[in-house]
Structures are given as structure tokens and as C-alpha cells.
Amino acid sequence: LSMNTDQASNVRPILWEEGHLRLLDQRRLPHAVEYVDCRNAGAVAAAIREMVVRGAPAIGIAAAYGVVLAARTAYTKDPGQWRREIQDDLDRLAESRPTAINLHWALCRMRSAFEPIRGEPETELLGLAGKIHEEDIAANLRMSAFGAALIADSTRVLTHCNTGSLATGGFGTALGVIRAAFHAGTLQGVYATETRPWLQGARLTVWELQQDHIPVTLIADSAAHSLLAQRKAGWIIVGADRIAANGDVANKIGTYGLALSARHHGVGFMVAAPVSTFDPDTPSGAEIPIEDRDPAELIHCSGAALAPAGTSAWNPVFDVTPASLIDVIVTERGVIRQPDRDKIAALIGMR
Amino acid sequence: LSMNTDQASNVRPILWEEGHLRLLDQRRLPHAVEYVDCRNAGAVAAAIREMVVRGAPAIGIAAAYGVVLAARTAYTKDPGQWRREIQDDLDRLAESRPTAINLHWALCRMRSAFEPIRGEPETELLGLAGKIHEEDIAANLRMSAFGAALIADSTRVLTHCNTGSLATGGFGTALGVIRAAFHAGTLQGVYATETRPWLQGARLTVWELQQDHIPVTLIADSAAHSLLAQRKAGWIIVGADRIAANGDVANKIGTYGLALSARHHGVGFMVAAPVSTFDPDTPSGAEIPIEDRDPAELIHCSGAALAPAGTSAWNPVFDVTPASLIDVIVTERGVIRQPDRDKIAALIGMR
């Protein structure tokens, strides 16, 4: 069972092979292309927590496969009570990262399939996890077409973090839009922020765009403002980890500063995300839990300490961009210009 | 001859010892405290270019001592024509970094002493270089008192890059203001950006503040916007590499984005710089030359490649903040609120 399609890029971050989950180890990129084998839900939760796999949609898909492994374990332990036995593993998966809502969405969707299952659950649940995976790629392709049409007037755009194949089922949200615009012939190149502290831009986005021969220029995060002042990018395009009911967006730390700068310079600011990223139960950005990660991720780089021993650091890895700074949210169901509560409710209520 | 005073911090970045210039190697901090010995002007120019010494005022002081070494060489070569022989070395020093105007100011001041010299020039010029060095520390102390009074309402502030003893004669501009406010008892702690790509914040500012036991919390550059949104800092305080006649400020890349954010959040934005940083011959920021440095400085860290082979990068190391975003410029002669051409002309015309 392969979850990748021909339309997707050559990068295959999430595989189900030989009865278990294999995750491309994003901690080791771009220096090594290695997979981590996950044979139980605990291993999947650890891989999510330690960022073997990252990116909101990819986390959701990995967690869905994690439920398949959890169900196998639970059914082996007690075939009659697997729905009870699986609870601890579901909690473990749910708690692996706090900010991305796609994780909870995927777990909820998997759980909703439990009730009607008779006999062993693995086959049924693997089918659903595969469907979630395939739907994510299909959603990426649709939103990418919508987004590419919007940026047809720009030869260069700026993106932040990694939102490509590596962050999704295998195509990309913001980077999917960029990939589609490049293949449509309107986009000539991309500026990518390095994205401190984890360097998703330098390590992952540059690597992924190189695989697809899309020209990319790396910049320091803080050089983005000069780039906009010099009119070198026509749009900023980012993904999202959670979109509140009012359109506030939690995304990689630095997104908020880019949105402020885009508005100041009259540059368009686009968020590309699947509908699974919307969280109608979170009224606004103020209620989105923002993950603070270990300061060591900021203080160390490539195994070396950057700052002196005893350094204190604050390492929030997401921030909140208010809806008022967002020009358009692009989803697989269409686009929302000047997002607000009513427009979002209408879109996510659609079927 | 020691150029440091008791009022200055314990950090001694620039020394004249045993007849030559010794520069604390800022590439090696915080892991090693080592000095580079410069015995001729070419070595000083190389040390400036390669960032053994950095920070606009420190570059000016190092260059002044470089002129002493250049005069020695020229006088040894041809005592009667040393003013002609020295020209190549003066050009070499002038070309070592393009953005900081203090370098040109110091060279100009040294050169203005050439004419009346009779006999060997070294003694006279060393006296002047030492005076430039001591005056810089004295100017730091005066501007720090002015600045500290302005931020007396803030318990925490944010700074960018390194503007302390390491960047000056031995006390600091923005970090001098911070040091003075801490010793005055109003300031409780500092947020320091790591300052990519060269990590002046993580490597130098954290280290320097640790030496003085001033509490400091390191953040990623792009986390500054969340910090301000959460009202965790009352002021942003930065230095300057050049201030144009209209008050536009060239400073470390990222300063402009911080200024935009400060204005958006209603947080004060202060520039602390000696009068030697003003360049009346540059009408506005648009005419300030901005140094693009080797992309390798962005792509490599601690000797390891961060991005894949073949990565293209744009690495401007300064940006321009328009005067309209600056609330106050603090100098050793006093403060300029809402800087403009007339206020600046009045201040730098003062004697």
C-alpha cells in the first residue's frame, strides 16, 4: 500500500510498508535520507514529539497510522476490549504536540470509525488512515490550484518554514501553491526564510525545492523585511497549524512579524491550509495553546552550543497572526478573502 | 598604555600592548577568549573584514590604531615621504567594511593630524588613537545615562545584535544604556535576539551580560514580535552603523522589522549611538551602502552546513530603518526625539 500519487513530488515523508509506519527522519535532512520505523503507537507519538515528522497535516496523517498500530496492540492484548485497551495510546498520540489541530482532527476521525467494527480492527482502520493520507494529497492539489491562480501576477514570493511534501501527505500547502505556480509558468523563484530555531526553511524547504528544480534563495528570517521594502516578493505564503473560528492563525514562530511587514509594505499575505486545520471550538487566537519547546533547540545547532553555558532562553515555536492581517486563506474547498467568523463558518459547514 | 577605564565593563575588546594592537577574537566567543595580534595595517584591515572586531564604534577605534601601525611602516620605509607611503594602507582600512561610517570618521580624524607632525609620526598618532578610544568610552557613559533615564519606566527591554563593550571602546551604546538602567535599579532584565546569521546576540550579548551579572533571556529573532504582542518588553534599544542626515538608521539586519513591530505595538524604539555615527554627507537611508556578506555565513554554523549543497542565499547584514519609526536617538550630546534633518543638524553642529 503506497500512499503517494504520481501528482505528488518525489519526496515521500510518510510510508506504510511491511505492516508498519515508516517516517522520513526530518531531523537528519538534508544531510541524510533515513527512515524511522514505528511499530507501535508509542513510537509514533515519540516521533511526532521529537520532530521526526512535523508539519500540521503530516502530524495528523502520522497519528492516524499510529491509531492503526495502537488498535493492533489493543486487539492482541484483549480482542473483546480493544476499544478500552486503546485509550492510553490515543491519549499519548493526542498529547504529542499541542498546537496543530490536525492531530486531534485525525484522531477524532479515526475514533469515529471504531463503533461499527466487528472482529479485528486493523484492516478497517488502515483503510481509513490511507484514505486520510490520500485525501490530504488531493486537498493539497486542489488548494494549490486555487492559490496559484491568485499569485499569477508575481514572479517571486516569500515563504516561511516548510509546508511542502515533508509537512503534508506528499505535496504541500503553501509550498504546494508555490509548486503549482511554478509549473504554471508564472512563478520564477522563491525566497525561503531559514526559519529559526529548527531551520525548516534552510534544511527542508531548500532541499525539497531542489528536488523539484524550483529556484530558491535562502534568507535570514530577519532579512524578510528588507526584501519586502525592496519589492522583491509579491506575496508571502505560509501554512497554518490551527485556524481559530474567527480566522486568527497559529503558525511557525515569525509568521506574525511577516504578516505585519506584508501589511506595511502592501504585499499580499496568504495562508494555505486544509479544512482540517480549522478549529471551530477555538474562538480566537488567544485560546490557541502555543508550544514552548526546549531552549536547547535554540541554543544548540548541529550539535554545537551557540550561546554560553547557563544561557536562559524563551523558545515559543508558534505565534498567532490575527485574521485582520490575512488577505486570503486558501483551502481545498475554495478561498476566503478577508477571513472572518461568518465566512469561515460558511466554508467549514460546506460539504 | 591601557585604553580601558574603571567605569567600563570587564570586557576588554581592544588593547594596545607591547607596541601593537590586540583584538579580542569575536569569532571565537563565547567558547574561547583569545586575542589576535595585529602588527601592521593589513592585519587590522583583515581583522575588521573577517569580524575579529565588529560593531561600528569598535571598528573605528581599531582602524585608528591601524593608522598608527601604517604610519610606522610608512616612516620606516621612507621617513621623508611617509604621508605618501601611508596612502595604500589608509585605503585598505577604509575599504574593510562598507556600512559603518565610524570607520571613515576615525580615519578622517587620524588623517587630519598628519600635517603638523614633524619627525616620526607614531607617538603623536598613538596619542590620538588612544584619545579616540577614551572619548568613545566617555561618550558611551554619557549617552547611557541619558538613555537610562528614558527607560526608567520599563523593567524589561529588548535589544538586537551586540552593542556593548565588545562593539565599542569598552562600555556600549544600546547595551550601555541597558547596563546603566540595570545599575540604576530600574531595569530587571533583558531580552536579546540571537541575531542571525552571525549570532552576535547569542554569542556576544549573552556572554557580555553574564560577565556583568545582568539577567538576559535569549530569543529567536522572529520571536520578538510575539514578545511585543505579549507586552513583555517596554522598549526596543539598538545601536547604529550609520545615521543619515535625515535620521534614517542603518543597523544590523532585522532592526527594521523590529522598528515596524515596535510602532505597531506602541513600544518605544530607541537608537543609541555616538555622534561619530552620523553622516551628514548621506542625505537618507537610500544612499547608505548596505553590505552583502558571503552566503556561507548564513549557510554554515559552527563549521557545519545547515542547508544542502548548492544553496543560493541573499545575506544583507544591515538594513535601513526610516527616521519616522524611531522615537528617540540617544547620543553623548543629548537626545533627539522624533529625529529629523533639522534636529540632527543642530545636534551634530554643536560643539
Explain what this protein looks like in three dimensions.
The structure is a homodimer of 351-residue chains. The first copy, chain A, is of the alpha/beta class and 351 residues long. The first copy, chain A, is 38% helix and 18% strand. In chain A, a hairpin with a 4-residue loop joins strand 8 (242-244) and strand 9. In chain A, helix 1 (41-49) packs parallel to helix 4. Chain A is globular, with a radius of gyration of 20 Å. Residues 1-7 of chain A have low confidence and may be disordered. Strand 14 (312-313) of chain A pairs parallel with strand 6 of chain B.
What are the key terms here?
351 residues; 4-stranded mixed beta sheet; alpha/beta; homodimer; disordered N terminus
Strand element count of chain A? 17
Largest interface comes to: A-B, 55 and 55 residues
Percent strand of chain A equals 15-25%
Oligomer: homodimer
What would you call the structural class of chain A? alpha/beta
SSE pattern of chain A: EEEHHHHHHEHEHEHEEEHEEHEEEEEEH
Tell me the distance between the termini of chain A: 28 Å
Radius of gyration of chain A: 20 Å
Per DSSP, the total helix count of chain A is: 12
Name the shape of chain A in a single word. globular
